Amino acid sequence: MKPEEFQALCVPPECTLHAALARMNQVARGILLVLGPDGRLVRTLTDGDLRRALLGHLAETSPVSSLPAQPPVTVSEAATAAGVLALMDRHLIDHVPVLNAAGEPVDVIFRRELSQRIWLSSPHLGEEETAFVEDAFKTNWIAPLGPHVDGFERELAAHVGLGHAAAVSSGTAALHLGLLLLGVKPGDTVFCSSLTFVGSCNPILYCGAQPVFIDSEPQSWNMSPAALERAFDVARRAGRMPSCVVLVNLYGQSADMDALLPICERYGVPVLEDAAESLGAHYKGRSSGSFGKLAVYSFNGNKIITTSGGGMLVGNDAELIARARKLSTQAREPARHYEHTEVGFNYRMSNVLAGIGRGQLRVLEQRVQQRRRVFDIYREALADLPQVQWMPEPEGMRSTRWLTCFTLAGPDAALRADLVMKSLERHSIEARPVWKPMHLQPLFKGAAYFSHGPDDDVSARLFDAGVCLPSGSNLTDEQIGRVIDHLRRALILAEDRRAAA
Ligand SMILES: *Cc1c(COP(=O)(O)O)cnc(C)c1O
Asked: What CATH architecture applies to the domain 3-114?
């Protein structure tokens, strides 16, 4: 709800029934809030309350305070959408005011919005997926392997300008194979971006290796060249070089390859590019995911294109990708019987899902445009709020804006970001913090970490002050508008709260 709309819901106890009725018609929300002189909620007024009062012979000129008292049903600012809905059902009501700790109403939640949840990033099918999947059924090619798997691999590799691709069951599986193929063994160390999803680094543990986490830089939110340089310097002096660097491209944006790759090259350490979130992004005209010795894409349900679940390992080294295919199908040796000399995995993508992937790949560029447009709408609508600092898009990079993310500037950013996300959640709008950095995760307690500057932990700051907004390519303008209206009010309220504190 827009800030002025909320103001229009509020009336004083002296307000006449006539004036209340007029206001009720004007705001057309089916509810008014009666506020005492101290700003606290005295009661709510519904259409029904007013109608009953007038039928009960109260004069139109009587104040609303002459109505029989009725304690309002309210929720606190910590309420969730699910909790609010349960309360509405219990009391058979369609709107609930939200009170702050002082008992002042700060918001109203309506039943209608709770039934129309707005997701962070939901799957968005195109027109051709069904035809590919039907083909898989018609030809009885439901098993892993099959023409759609080959087709999807070929088409994706061509799309990103690489020679080879191996389709697997998830991005995580692709990362696991990538690490093994780059020679990561038990006891090794692997450098990895700290600001990422845990799927980037769980496979390091599968290999029995230890992650060393590298901070972000503020310009791209991706791996800091300064931190990487220091990590290498320390590793060299300790005589313990990493076997590989997992370089993550976050939220649809490439890392600064021109700064990072020469450092890895100088130390002779291969890069495994985690492009799970950046399919469709460009760095200086080249596809994100085409920079590492190997790279990984994900087609999980929340990614820019999806096969419901799936991943791809890509690269220009035909031999490595052929080995990935072998390892992903239980490492079977070429023989009529089942012959095995090494450990394999059941990681192959199925022909049905590859069919979905082929259809999705055809709309990838459209999805990039749609997500960028969502970002542009947010940016323009909130341009007057200087506390909102969007994830930057440095010169020469084209982000897909897979997720629209911002950090809040100014003091107590974490507190305000928390208030904003809670407020959106009450209205059934899914907003999330920026990834919690891996060096702050209990899972990786004790792991080595190199921050951007000696006293500058960039990823921790981004986590504290960051918010990811609903960003799906299938959001309607009406839904984006709903997010913007609630967000604007939540941002202003959070600012007021800090000013008052
Ligand atoms: C989604 C994601 C993964 C894992 O991909 P899955 O297909 O879900 O296994 C890895 N890294 C990053 C950065 C991701 O966002």
From this structure: Roll (3.10)
